[in-house]
Design a protein that fits this description.
Chain lengths: 423, 297
């Protein structure tokens, strides 16, 4: 048994959705339900829609029949689309929620960084929050005493240690939060998409810290959408797809499998996609990438115009559309935000239910790209779909200079050289 | 969303196979579906006792932030209730007060009562208001309502000192019965904790609880001998009155401090039993429901 850190056996987690388990009932609803339930259940039984008291349907398995083992000292990346069960898995491993089926055995103390800064109180000072947050994460007071200087130095907030955190800038806030969490020293560390905080310099520091943790022989389980990051930090990857283990192998194998399904997921009718986030009051129905000159071909060319069209089902107050472009290995390339206005932006009442983004000169190198789209309205995220569209950029010219496919880089700029020459 | 997707420069570090093996004597934790009723996780709560302390400390620190009166609120609330009761029940309605000046009579009862009422109001919301934490971090959930109730002890202590002041003002000196006071204070704590656990858990599933608590507290106030003495009731009804554990607490406080002859024998036994049943039942109910908190909140 001494070479196992985590043993997951036929793990499953069922969630009730829809009418049965609302986020909460009113007592009156519950009473009405108690009165009507016997009749409904009898009806279901007669129609064959139910077995015993349990009503069939209206449930989803966020995880189904998951089994794997992780050895001590392994650094494992868990990847998958939204709704694939990654977060549910981490929640079960950390004990936040119980599985419905199967079990997970964990050997050693577990620390989880599922969200930095949870449990911070705005009215307390930085120092007070370090102690409070440390205790919530499972640290002893003596342990925090010992590491206080280190935590403060890492977060770079020493001058503001005794200032209430509500006066902190958001950067300081996340730095402190991450710093507390990063000084947790459990045998097993579960990390959920928390690394990308703060500015670039701090991000690099966080990564260094995470790498130290891994190098120190501790078991680390990462969940992230950043494939580059996972490939740098992990040896092994587990790709979850629709609640099951799709690929369990080296991190490269898992990332490849993931990227492949992302492209398969591309469909013109986005309304059928279920792996989305957001409030859902407005939804993205389709995303189109066209070559502006003829409007039909989805083959774009470097240096040529391109048009991105996003179809939505309704319009909300203050509605905006963001999209992010990623390359084939999942590295982010650039993003577009309709909220950030430019002088050439226009409103068109006759446009209907769509957003149109025109690019005069596409500065992407030839290759394959995908876009993630976010729809914002009523000041909240309404819809977010990964890989809403995938497009191909063909060879072209920028500033009259040929642009060619390059496995490594994605962006090209119009430029000119001044060269020395022998007289 | 996009802050998660910012490009990150990654220093690629050479992988080396770490040959470190964790000894097999590491504790094993099994995560599996919980089956029905189980023992409350008291040992785990003990391991996390520092968290209990930090939660209580947070509640105390934050409670009177941004208020003008600050900790004075701990006194204002029972003090003015006492003034109102003295005017309307003491003066106007001439409610008997077991031979003690009415203001002392009612304030002695209001001190433990205020502790109870505040515990209910705050602990019943403790899970819901910390929903974010419950959904993101694992820690013994029991720590939240318990710490909230414990935080009220400071307010209780402040109000208690004022009570001693009022007693002195009226020239009353505590009787030797005062050695029993810690027991009655404990009874108040057990009752508050017991009721709070039930309400906190129910509040997770039924948000109706939030609206019920103020009303419940008000009704309970009048069902407890605070504005009037339980000596108005003949036996055996007085013993039955002990079914309301706060009745036992209140009469116990009066007996211990003021030496009223409502020596709370049988009534206290009934109250103590009810309080214990409430607490133990609450702890089991909590244990049964706690695994669903993260999913329901």
């Amino acid at each position: 048994m001494d070479d196992i850190a985590i043993n997951v056996e036929a793990l499953g987690k069922k969630y009730h959705i829809g009418g049965i388990q609302k986020s909460y009932y009113r007592l009156t609803d519950q009473l009405a339900d108690i009165v009507t339930a016997p009749f409904r259940r009898a009806g279901n039984l007669i129609r064959g829609d139910a077995r015993g008291v349990a009503e069939l349907g209206e449930t989803i398995w966020a995880l189904k029949d998951i089994s794997f083992q992780i050895k001590p000292g392994e650094v494992v990346g868990i990847i998958g689309r939204n709704g694939a069960g990654k977060s549910t898995l981490l929640k079960i491993l950390s004990g936040i929620t119980d599985p419905t089926d199967g079990y997970a055995d964990i050997y050693g103390r577990v620390g989880s960084l599922l969200e930095v800064g949870t449990g911070f109180h705005p009215d307390l000072t930085g120092r007070e929050n370090i102690y409070l947050n440390g205790a919530i994460l499972g640290m002893k007071k003596t342990e925090i005493d010992r590491k206080l200087d280190e935590i403060v130095a890492f977060a770079e907030i020493d001058k503001f240690l005794d200032t209430p955190v509500k006066h902190y800038s958001s950067g300081m806030y996340v730095r402190l939060a991450f710093s507390v969490a990063a000084h947790l020293e459990p045998e097993i560390l579960l990390v959920d998409e928390v690394l990308a905080v703060g500015d670039m310099a701090f991000q690099r520091k966080c990564l260094g810290k995470m790498d130290d943790v891994a190098q120190a022989g501790r078991t680390v389980v990462f969940v992230s959408h950043n494939m580059g990051l996972l490939q740098a930090l992990c040896q092994r990857g587990i790709f979850l797809h629709q609640g099951g283990v799709d690929t369990d192998g080296t991190i490269t194998e898992a990332v490849d499998a993931y990227l492949q399904t992302l492209e398969q997921a591309r469909s013109h009718d986005l309304s059928k996609r279920t792996d989305r986030k957001g409030q859902g009051h407005a939804r993205l129905l389709g995303a189109e990438v066209v070559n502006d000159s003829d409007g039909s071909s989805s083959i774009l060319k470097t240096g040529q115009p391109a048009r991105f069209v996003f179809y939505v089902d309704t319009l909300l107050l203050g509605m905006a559309c963001d999209f992010h472009i990623y390359d084939t290995i999942g590295q982010p390339v650039t993003s577009f935000k309709s909220r950030l206005r430019g002088p050439k932006d226009a409103y068109d009442p006759s446009l209907g239910l769509k957003f149109v983004c025109d690019i005069d000169e596409l500065l992407l190198l030839p290759g394959r790209y995908r876009i993630d789209v976010a729809i914002v309205g009523d000041n909240r995220l309404q819809d977010f779909i990964e890989a809403a569209a995938v497009f191909e950029v063909g060879d072209g010219h920028v500033g009259g200079r040929p642009a060619q496919h390059d496995g490594k880089f994605s962006v090209v700029m119009s430029h000119r050289w001044t060269l020395p020459t022998k007289l | 969303m996009d802050h998660l997707k910012q490009p990150i420069e990654v220093a690629v570090v050479p992988k080396k196979d770490t040959a470190l093996t964790i000894p097999s004597n590491l504790p094993r934790t099994r995560r599996e579906a919980s089956k029905g009723w189980a023992w409350p996780k008291l040992r785990e709560l003990w391991e996390y006792r520092e968290l209990l302390y930090f939660f209580a400390w947070r509640d105390i620190k934050v409670r009177y932030k941004q208020t003008v009166m600050g900790a004075l609120w701990a006194i204002i609330q029972p003090f003015f209730t006492m003034v109102i009761f003295s005017l309307f029940f003491g003066r106007l309605a001439n409610v008997p007060s077991d031979g003690v000046p009415y203001p002392v009579f009612s304030f002695t009862a209001l001190v433990p009562w205020t502790f109870f009422a505040n515990a209910l109001a705050q602990a019943s919301n403790s899970l819901v208001s910390n929903a974010n934490m419950i959904k993101k971090i694992y820690f013994p959930r029991l720590a939240l309502p318990i710490a909230t109730v414990l935080a009220g002890i400071i307010d209780f202590a402040v109000a208690f000192i004022v009570l001693l002041g009022i007693m002195l003002f009226y020239g009353l000196v505590p009787t030797v019965n005062i050695i029993w006071l810690p027991f009655f204070a404990l009874l108040a704590l057990v009752t508050s904790l017991g009721v709070s656990l039930w309400l906190a858990v129910m509040n997770v599933q039924f948000r109706d609880v939030r609206y019920t608590v103020p009303f419940l507290t008000q009704a309970w106030l009048f069902m407890t001998p605070i504005a009037y003495p339980s000596s108005l009731l003949p036996e055996p009804w007085r013993t039955l009155y002990g079914l309301n554990p706060m009745a036992g607490v209140v009469e116990g406080f009066r007996w211990a401090l003021l030496g009223t002859d409502t020596a709370p024998g049988k009534m206290i036994i009934v109250s103590s039993l009810v309080a214990l049943i409430l607490l133990i039942g609450g702890a089991f109910y909590f244990r049964r429901m706690e695994e669903s908190f993260a999913d329901v909140l």
